[in-house]
Specification:
Thiol Ester Dehydrase, Chain A, 2 domains, six-stranded mixed beta sheet, 9 helices
């Protein structure tokens, strides 16, 4: 799995009819900054409202997953989200001039292809995986649905479906790594049973349904008169069925294509937890209602694990900047080189790491019998983190000095002692003007805020 966050290099557009609304729409994928996540935007509505791809925004799961926020809805989002997860794209804005993404051929493969055309761009931020700490389970006895997320240092998905159908029988599908999604899962199309068609049609759904974008499984004997009625429903001259039971003799891409498509739906719906997942996902007879209920349980576990505004530090992952790269930018040296790593960097936010050890020179004289890191050095380390952010705005940072101009509202919340790992976060409060930067700095040990301050700094070219 990729370690750093990714977006796309350029905007790309696909067009087509929505499966359930029958409305033709244009859908444009646009690059987005780190930690943006997946967001939809209805550009056809006044104010162009944003709808976050968040499981708490799900309002309907009848034959697809529908999101609503700020009074705006987007229908059937799961195939688009599955493509983004399958390509390990973290940040993208999806603009729509209609209520529903195009169904295309009923799978994710055409979204994969258009995103490939856009190209991927690595970003200066580590992916914030949610590593499932212990088993999370969901069960719906009335539908015989069981789902589980088990701890694993990867993302694997296994799905079983069983419809008591002589045509489908019991089917399984699985991937052992998300990189397999493109070739093994993405091209698998949505499906339904013949006996469901009339019900869906009468419920004002599948207005954009076509025998080219869905597999219709025929699990009973069909009279000629009914075939004529179906032809009229789908605006076809004629529809027919072979013994294997697929309407209009559509050829399956895989023998277990329905199970593979259910896996696709699981991947798309679980994207709504808001972060890439590391877990073994196992699902028996899943559907959108179960997927969403399961995703909510995962999100609640994720929220319990810690606040999302605190920078996440995983020492197993490579940094955005190591000590050698930091030394090339900042002029500080022993004993005032206080920053060890940069783990996040974008246009307005930076996060850095300081490992506090008993070997720090200041512990020799600062309460040697009760070693506590001096508050002034916590602020200095936080300022050095902010210096990386400010210097990243110029092309040749090695030719600039950074100077403190002011510190406001500085508070020390808890003592920092040897063995602690300080996580610093600095965020610009306003755009940098005339070389002057004002930023809010915070320092954490674990999920505990230990220090905070508002800092003003100036960057000055060395010749000056």
């Amino acid at each position: 799995m990729r370690v750093k966050q990714h977006t796309i290099k350029k905007q790309v557009t696909v067009s087509g009819v929505g499966l359930h609304t029958g409305v033709i729409s244009n859908m444009t994928f646009l690059p987005a900054p780190p930690n943006h996540g997946y967001k939809f935007q209805r550009v056809d509505i006044e104010g162009m409202p944003i709808i976050d791809a968040d499981v708490d925004n799900v309002v309907d799961v009848s034959r697809g997953t529908t999101l609503e926020q700020s009074g705006a809805r987007v229908f059937t989002v799961e195939h688009v989200l599955a493509a983004l997860v399958g390509l390990e794209i973290d940040n993208v804005l999806i603009q729509l001039d209609g209520p529903e993404p195009p169904i295309m051929d009923g799978s994710s493969i055409q979204f994969i292809e258009i995103l490939d055309n856009a190209g991927l761009e690595e970003q200066n931020a580590l992916r914030r995986f949610f590593e499932v700490p212990e088993s999370i389970t969901f069960r719906d006895a009335s539908r015989e649905v069981e789902m589980a997320a088990l701890p694993l240092d990867n993302y694997r998905v296994t799905v079983m479906v069983d419809y008591n159908s002589p045509v489908l029988g019991s089917q399984h599908a699985s991937i052992t790594d998300i990189s397999q999604f493109r070739n093994e899962i993405a091209s698998c199309r949505t499906f339904c049973f013949l006996h469901e068609l009339e019900m869906l049609y009468n419920q004002n759904l599948i207005k954009g349904g076509d025998l080219n974008n869905a597999i219709v499984v025929v699990d009973r004997v069909v009279e000629e008169k009914e075939l004529e009625h179906l032809a009229k429903m789908f605006n076809k001259e004629k529809v027919e069925v072979r013994k294997e039971g697929i309407l209009n003799n559509v050829e399956l891409r895989y023998k277990n294509e329905p199970a593979r498509h259910k896996l696709l739906d699981v991947v798309g719906d679980l994207a709504l937890v808001g972060r890439p997942i590391k877990a073994q996902i196992m699902a028996a007879r899943p559907g959108h209602a179960a997927n969403v209920a399961f995703a909510k349980k995962i999100k609640r576990a994720m929220e319990k694990a810690g606040p999302s505004h605190i920078p996440h530090y995983d020492p197993k992952l490579p940094p955005v900047m190591d000590i050698a790269q930091i030394s090339n930018i900042l002029p500080h040296r022993y004993p005032f080189q206080l920053l060890d790593k940069i783990i996040y960097l974008d246009d307005t936010v930076v996060a850095g790491i300081k490992n506090v050890t008993i070997n720090e020179p200041f512990f020799m004289g600062h309460f040697p019998a009760n070693p506590v890191m001096p508050g002034v050095l916590q602020v200095e380390a936080m300022a050095q983190t902010g210096g990386i952010l400010v210097l990243s705005t110029v092309d040749d940072p090695e030719n600039y000095w950074t100077y403190f101009l002011g510190i406001e509202n500085c508070k020390f919340r808890k003592m920092v002692v040897p063995g602690d790992t300080l996580v610093f976060k600095c965020e610009l409060l306003a755009p940098i003007r005339r070389g002057i930067a004002k930023m809010k700095g915070e320092a954490y040990v674990g999920n505990t805020l230990v220090c905070e301050a508002v800092m003003t700094a100036s960057i000055v070219r060395k010749e000056s």
